[in-house]
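Aim 2 progress update. The chain analyzed this quarter is reproduced below.
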Amino acid sequence: MAVAESPGIDTLTLTKSFYSPTEVARLASVSNSTILNYIRSEKLAAVRLSARVYRIPRKSVMLLLGLPTKPIEFSSDPDRAVSLE
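Predicted structure tokens:
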């Protein structure tokens, strides 16, 4: 489930291990309510710290934004295949 493309977002900008729902909403160009609904409906994995506080792991944010979750491997061997999945 990828949210609408957000220009300028790449794996280099996601440097934190966990993000708040507000930060994820801004990155995904959706409302805070949408992110909280995704969490409650289990469409977005999150850690509940208290009754009103959630943190979302970087990998979940990357999946939501449609970014690759594994680092891309580069090789100097031109015959070696590179997997982007």
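The chain has a mean pLDDT of 81. The beta strands are 18-19, 47-48, 54-57. These observations will guide the mutagenesis experiments scheduled for the next reporting period.
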